[in-house]
Fold each of these.
Amino acid sequence: MAADSEFHVLAVDDSIIDRKLIERLLKTSSFQVTTVDSGSKALEFLGLHEDDGIINTNTPSVSPNNHQEVEVNLVITDYCMPGMTGYDLLKKIKESSSLKNIPVVIMSSENVPSRISRCLEEGAEEFLLKPVRLSDLNKLRPHMLKTKIKDHQEPEKQDKEEKQQQPQSNNNNRKAMEEGISTEKIRPRLNGITAMV
Amino acid sequence: MDLVQLQRQLVDYKTSLYNEGFLDEQFTQLQELQDENNPDFVVEVVSLFFEDSERLLNELTKALEQQSVDFKRVDAHVHQLKGSSSSIGAQRVQKVCIAFRNYCEEQNIEGCVKCLQQVRHEYSLVKTKLESMFQLQQQILSAGGSIPM
């Protein structure tokens, strides 16, 4: 089995039914899957520690203090979750020097244009409406491939034109988060991640 | 009843479930995800749905019995139920949840109580029907037949 054809996806959803579903969808699409039930567990899995969570422009991204055991090629997360929302998770990933190049996809059962544009502005690659289908997952591989190529080039390019689900509203509400959780403390030594592979 | 009759009965039963709105296209999607390597996928997901729904219905009952109803909490539970019913294709349950959420927004306790009754009813209907369908499937498999999809 060729190593580069096996992409590893981290799926985040608080619903046990949806975790089971997304796991099956991803495996059927030949991805390796880990599922977790919260944003904080996702960050823990990704190896993000408290100091990485704070925007630190002085930290060089040359030698990543990456404590990841396993490489994650894409994060797919539910939007509405208690505690850390999918949006909060997206932000934390994009603000992290070690994780910002990981593509993030948001799923939501609600079709809210301002929510969609906010996520895309924050750097989400796709916004999928639930229930997610197999055909939706076909959109994922290109983002993971792009990252593999990107790793050998400049990491700072953002192709906003390629975003397909862009509604026409021009919302500048980056700070208008629904739950107001922007300073979530990440406890680095939590045990007992319920990760299903 | 012979195998062919059983299989016929299953097809007719399934068709009626779709026609009567108990199940929608999403249920078909679930079945398509099942294969020889994951032969119990549908039963497993549906079982999770049953467990989770029962938990949510209990929570909803408790929440609506409070002196001062926390509508945000009620809405959060209904949102979860709406999501999971949508994920398995339990259309009628999902529809009641939509109405239920509207009553939560209006902070209409009577409306909420009524919806809870309705959603319990729809849930119990779809549960019975899915269980019957699974039983029929099991009979077919035990008789050495395959499930017509």
Note: The radius of gyration of chain A is 16 Å.
Amino acid sequence: MRRSGAPRTGPDAGAAAMAATFFGEVVRAPCRAGTEDEEEEEEEGKRETAEDREVRRQLARKREVRLFRRQTKTSLEVSLLEKYPCSKFIIAIGNNAVAFLSSFVMNSGVWEEVGCANLWNEWCRTTDTTHLSPAEAFCVFYHLKSSPSVVLCQCSCYVAEDQQYQWLEKVFGSCARKNMQVTILTCRHVTDYKTSESTSSLHSPFLKALKTQNFKEPPCCSLLEQPNIVHDLPAAVLSYCQVWRIPAVLYLCYTDVMKLDLITVEAFKPILSSRSLKGLVKNIPQSTEILKKLMTTNEIQSNIYT
Amino acid sequence: MASRYDRAITVFSPDGHLFQVEYAQEAVKKGSTAVGIRGTDIVVLGVEKKSVAKLQDERTVRKICALDDHVCMAFAGLTADARVVINRARVECQSHKLTVEDPVTVEYITRFIATLKQKYTQSNGRRPFGISALIVGFDDDGIPRLYQTDPSGTYHAWKANAIGRSAKTVREFLEKNYTEDAIANDNEAIKLAIRALLEVVQSGGKNIELAVIRRNQPLKMFSAKEIELQVTEIEKEKEEAEKKKSKKAT
């Protein structure tokens, strides 16, 4: 352990655990030793000024998750599910999951928009939500007019780690947690899937499920094996449901095409037979047609790959 | 571990992977499907056409290209990389003809392309070509050939193969359906290629492009009408097969 004030020399000075790689880039290796000297050094150099605090405040304000009604442009005073209590909450995260719900569920009934989430982060810069095109990232909430206790969320924007808690609070808040069932649909690239089998025997896209303790129904596909983990907003919602003992199931589709793709969307079809979606889907052939139309209208004309 | 060893092409990971080459193979999967079939007297290349923007000239988006009069190839992956590889291959074909006064064999030009690709996996500052290619043609001895190359620079001869998105599905279909009967005559081989593509193509025959080379004949691209005819025939055969099945069942 070096004493504070001792000169730091060389890349391996002190326990600051910096390492130079083969390419000369300096990489901070994780160090659990936690030296005392480091704290002292930090205090000297990094005292927060008023400017820093102001910047930090502005950034926090910019990154705030706001839930509001698009028609009236007023923000919701309470959390979404407090205002619209539900028994079934279906969340689609990612463009393929969103396309699945759009074609198969939203077309079999009249859905009314009840709210929209506005958030800003490095990957999702939608600030104006009044004129959203279908291709833009968004997060919109609907409920079924004929049965308002069914709420749907179409989320195709990225919710950053620091915003996930806010999102959960603004959506769930202190809503009634009894008699609620949550279904989450999302996609992940198959290269994230860890398995001891040979990857040439994997038939992507394929579906995997992860559920909370209180979810008693059998899921529509096999469960996600260890050591695979779920990331981002789906993980946040599932963890929230596990903590608050809400029965919830996550259907994760591993695919090798992350952009909008017919085969990936169709891989979600087994979920149509689950209890949460059963009553909601009526016309499957028509839905397939609508899905095909969605594909052609949303096809990004990228000429990079042929 | 991958994140430390996947930045430079010239660095092996501790367990022997060249991650950039493996990532290049992922780029290939982003291209639409291409299938190649070697028949007895014909070689067939079928591709899934990319849908073209309204204002874009369709002729400029081509997945099947002739390298010489008797050799052609289809690719999947990065368009720009394919253009560079095709240009080099075409120049090599002519250069070979001028030097040794004989047209290239299919194997020679495949080896040339594969060597070119391998060079780019061993040079610093360059990245591998992000394409896989299916090269078909007839040699002077009249034997049909089909080769496949991938970003690592390996090449193999195949009886039938597929590259690009959903290549696995198509390959499995071919493994089940590539029989001596299926390639008995030219028409059957063409039908097999179309049937293989219909397994994965998103909107039927309209999105299929087909090219054939017959012995001692130049490359022939099928028109949309001809492909539609074949697709209707295939659908008729399917219906008849299903009727037979249901009759047998009752």
Note: Chain A has one domain: 68-302.
